[in-house]
């Protein structure tokens, strides 16, 4: 039995088996993976890590398991799944996903199988079952990776705590005490308002934190560096889950020319400037933006670079993520019927449109070329009808 | 004008000149220096940096300056001094001080003089005056580096926030609004209780955080690595303020043998064990503990290593810091007289003894040798009368 | 100069003139008026008073005045207006408004004119001007009584703090630092998200707190008692602002029969039961619900009482307030143009519909008659087409 | 099963039996008893009640019971004891104790026996056993009424929350998880620091809140009113637990002359002034202060009144409570031995002296007589050697 003091949830308890899991190099590595990548360049307090998030998620999973009255073994399975669910994350969390073909869930699966993590887990559980829970399959899958999962609850609270942005505060108590487990998690009608407020928390955190325009610039800068390091074989994409943030920064600093220089800019916070922003409602077919292929993006970058007479790596075309709202489909039990959250809450429906409108395609380049870039009509260089 | 969102104090404002200072590589580097070194291995949330602490200190300094009704120029001087006061810190903050001959105040002074930080400062201020304020000289010196300074207020609050240890909560409002500036800062009698509580905050934070026994182990392990890197010339002690945490970890990982191996232990949290603890009240002349010279310590380590037949680098004799209580001498204004805090508060006097008793000399070594070390009477190997 | 410790905002400062105002019996009375009436029967912590809210509002008004760079005299006018803005509130705040013909703004005006509050104010200000600010007129009127006013900011934060319902947390910093004063307050585009989140805070606080179904029951019970006390002349409606919560409860306890009995029920939390709820979307002409006259409601109550063979005072038909959204019309400055918040935020538009749907007409009666009431088709007794 | 939202601890759960207890008039009355009496005249947020404190104490008792691994029945006994432990408190909590011969524990016992509370309790428990737990007898007695009991933990946290004074923050987690039950509660050595910090919290809360000089004035004023009401038979001391704050204020307002006038002063915050303060260390035999009999105090008041030619009821001689430190004797388990907290912590020993020195005897009277009172040498009128 061991206690870990968490700044968000207080004293968290791990049993001996969980301590053994937490003490593997695979989980300890998460102490050196920042939860929000380079967001600390925007919010100086955002230095929190996947490790804290992992034990925080375990704690919330455990509280939900208690409410659902799971038997001891299942409870333990859920706890351990939560503890290791992010083991496959690459350096700087989601920021490193761009250049990698596999999802972090797939990488977690691969990692577990080939590391001592898998050995330890199989002392007590079926590894296959753990992987199902982590990847959101089966009735227990909703707990860690569903529409209203404890992973999301923890990161909203935690990101809010460390950035100082109050929008992420959610009523975890109300959510956890209004769920029941049937074929998956079902929310009781009494929890609808708490669920609405959790969606709103996400809605507000997107432009404030996750898609803050400066966050997007630094992440784009870093992604290009990482792509180069992968291309050159300095970093092995098949083993991305072996590196931590330090490895990648040290590797980038060691590079000459482009990568070394951009890393220095990141270190000194000399960021690229946004010279163009295209909102979805400014074009006739916004879906074309999300459909742009990597090749098409690269081609646009090359042409803009040529026009400005700079190296093409200096041009970063940043296509927004498609704003998903899986929470819309959360099953809700109302007067005995099971309906979808989107059906009982017109606030939730409104959010879908509202958020869609926030997204924009942006173009960034070094400050020294920003002025000459003003002459360009960027839309002409993008494969988007206009 | 720019706003930075701080998780502890909220929206903090920087004017254009301060933004220029903050944007220098010297201040940006502080984003990559952890405030509490390796304490994150004990408290997983303790990843906060000298950068946040610097702007937080600037904020508190500014509020104090407003209360003291300083003129605009002096107010600005105090703010900028606070912003840069930690620029000379080496990697992992105080942890790197062991191997360096110069204090971090001296290094800050050297750094300012030779970097663009000095150039920018001298546009508006006398650099000499800034250095006086930072090093606690002159009437303004008390603000940032005195008995009850804003530096300490910020770090107690901040370390408390990020570790989740509530002991560091202090009544900053009451302190800041009960000070006046004469030859230095004087506390009004109404603030005595708040000052007592701030001393208690420190008192409690020592064993819980700053001198937590695991923190001491990891810091000792790291210090030995750093000493080796300095010895080998991998790191230049004269320019310690140019390195960040990443540089040192990357350098240590790149080493073969001892340093590389210890770094791997730190990464995987395979920590040395404490095999011996000597409390001050267990010996006749506790002052001898603090008077042990580096040579004497090294000699002890070598003899213990020989006895155990292991490499002498595996033995770490950790002598505690001498517990100082400068706050005892804080001038307090009571009914027109100026007395010392220690004179009006017997709680403060009691703390001195209480804290002295917490300190102990410890010996650590790798877990695999811990058992065989039990046979040793360590006191025989230390240069302490018994 | 005096400091008051507020649990929400910390140490608040009052100058000598403000202390004189605060020390009048009219403002001290607010210490004995609960901010949320009988809501403490639902949220046991909701015992906070109009007094704290008044000094909290003064504090926020002052911070806004600083941001707007108002001159010292205007700043002081705004502070004092905020301090006294609620002086005309009757016992249990809004709950007592039902039986009174005048709005609390009118009563505040009457009270100020006839009490020493007016005398003190006129030492420094034009009372007429103060009344204009309090009632939301003129450019300064928006500060305390506008679309996004500091009154609302304070009560959302405060009600959230004391009920323990986290929904009321809003980003006051962001709001206050993104306003400018022209013909009235205009929000800068950067503050739109904070404004959205403030509207959402209200949206969530309505069903959770302000219109919680139990809150509505106790308030309806109390309103009937108060109506009786006014009818009998025990309480003088023209001087409602002279009574505090204690006066009214003591008066009600002293009554025999109905009022005394209902007061005892309230004391012992033996609440009426809701036997009927009619949502707006269940009828063809929801506007008819809001248009029901007091006579029509009384007639319905009498007929239901006759049908159930009970005294008509036991039947409480509770018509919801019309959900207003003045915030929709908040002027927002976007790229030099001034538009309305409802135009730039489709989230805000969505809230209007969403909230409208929450409202319902309810019927309550004593638990002992609840079962026999099940046989009634209540809609037949209401003047609503169906 | 029912949830109550507590502003301090979050959602608290009551089972059906506990709801039945909580719904009795005896427990509901606690909603109308302020936890800190008239302290709201000093800290405007201090309007919290014995009701919230009772369910908060039940919650902490329950968490401790879980840690102690009590069986279900004992756990339930402890919860219910905590819920009702304050049922015998008179109006304004401790403030009303002065004029009553019985302790609030005795009154709780009397109340339980003669009310439906006793009937309900005896459905499930032995009332005798409940009374033993509440009055701190037997091994379970330490939980609610011991050296480090949950009653105290709750009120420190709660009083801190509502006054805004941060000193009351304690590490409840650490305390609750470091106790074991033998003949009584024993603290594990790991909890010593948390226990120290809890004692310090009390130490700081005394002068800031509980014995704040203005709090002492208003409490003294009220006590004299209450004494008169008891003397006149308006309030029955044998049934003090039937009255709430409202009853007593209404009764006092209804009085003519002295009581009515003092009540009006309290309502309008026109407080008596302190004209004399005698610190313990200013006299040779400080114990004489605590030994002053009611008669001796009354005699002093009469003589001072005569000297000033005012009614003797206007003179209030306020003798401080003797500062007790039962926590000194908390049993602590250190390396297998059980010792007392005062033995392992010299901080705790220091507190005893420190707090003793805070206490002083004070004399208050109406402001209009304050100036003429300056001529008096009050010590001559007190039965204290000098």
TrEMBL record, chains A, B, C, D:
One of its GO terms (molecular function) is dGTPase activity. Keywords: Hydrolase. The keyword Hydrolase applies. InterPro entries: dGTPase-like, HD/PDEase_dom, HD_assoc_2, HD_domain. SMART domains: HDc. Residues 50-156 form the HD domain. This is HD domain-containing protein. Gene3D superfamilies: Hypothetical protein af1432. It comes from Methanobacterium formicicum. GO terms for biological process: dGTP catabolic process.
